[in-house]
Structure formats: structure tokens, C-alpha cells
Design a protein that fits this description.
The chain is 75% helix and 0% strand. By secondary structure, it is mainly α. Helix 7 (96-109) runs antiparallel to helix 8 (115-127) and helix 8 (115-127) packs antiparallel against helix 9. 41% of the residues are buried. The mean pLDDT is 91.
């Protein structure tokens, strides 16, 4: 008997199973387990964040947007990662100015987080041409990527 069969509402098991399916790129199954984890512990920011990432992978951007905002509300101490993910969703939804704001807020929360710099560099190169800003963010991304602390949350 598996852990899920024994304890179908065990939060950690649901998260771990969702993470395993996500790692296998089976986002439909991952979504089911993360959604159940949210039902079991609705105040867990991590479950909302994982569900948001899964919705992003499934291109269900409005749902991802909602889950990342809930994760930010529930776990403000981890908001830099959630804001980064929110920015990715906003960019995919064509909300470029909102994406810029989310990436900037992620950097305000954690200046050593490299990935928002990468996204801002790409936005300023491709979508809102500004060579000065693009160069700045590309340079900072490159510098931070060479340090373990800058590679992500």
C-alpha cells in the first residue's frame, strides 16, 4: 500500500507526488495533486506556488496568476520567487508593464536573485527596446549567475 493510499490527504505526500509528476512533465497529473494539497492546507503558500507553476506550464495563465498572488499573500517572506513567476505569467498574458513591475518588485525583495534580471534584459531587448536597461540587466544577470546565491529561489 502506498503512502497516498494510506493517507490520501497527507499534505507532504501530495506535494511530493505533484513534484514528481511535474518533474516527469506530466503537468495534468501534477495539477491534480497540487490542487488537492491546496484543498488540504489552503493556507500553504508552497502549494499555491506549485499549483501556479503547473498552471503556467499548462498555459492556464489566469489560474497561474491567481495562485501566485495567493502564494505572495500567504508567504510574503518568499515573495521574490513568487513575484518572478508572476512576472512570467504576466508577460505571457501580454501584460508587459505589469511583468516589468513584478520583476522589479522581485528584485526589490532580493537584489541577489539573478533570474528577474534575465527576464528584464529580454523585455528591454525585444518588447520595449531600451538598450541601456537591457545591457544593465544582462550584465547583472551574468555577474549574479556566477554566484550560488544568485541562481534562484
Amino acid at each position: 500500500m502506498t503512502m497516498l493510499e494510506k493517507f490520501p490527504y497527507h499534505y507532504i505526500t501530495l506535494l511530493n507526488t505533484g513534484t514528481a509528476y511535474s518533474g516527469l512533465h506530466d503537468y495534468q497529473k501534477a495539477q491534480q495533486y497540487f490542487a488537492k494539497a491546496v484543498q488540504v492546507v489552503p493556507i500553504a503558500g508552497a502549494a499555491h506556488g506549485q499549483l501556479g507553476k503547473t498552471y503556467w506550464q499548462l498555459k492556464e495563465y489566469p489560474k497561474a496568476f491567481k495562485e501566485f498572488n495567493e502564494a505572495i499573500r500567504l508567504e510574503p517572506e518568499k515573495k521574490s520567487a513568487y513575484l518572478y513567476n508572476l512576472g512570467l505569467v504576466e508577460r505571457e498574458m501580454g501584460q508587459v508593464n505589469e511583468a516589468i513591475a513584478s520583476f522589479e518588485q522581485a528584485l526589490a525583495a532580493d537584489r541577489r536573485f539573478a533570474l528577474p534580471h534575465k527576464e528584464l534584459a529580454m523585455i528591454y531587448l525585444q518588447l520595449k527596446p531600451d538598450q541601456t536597461r537591457a545591457s544593465h540587466h544582462a550584465r547583472v544577470f551574468q555577474e549574479l549567475s556566477q554566484t550560488p546565491a544568485g541562481t534562484g529561489q
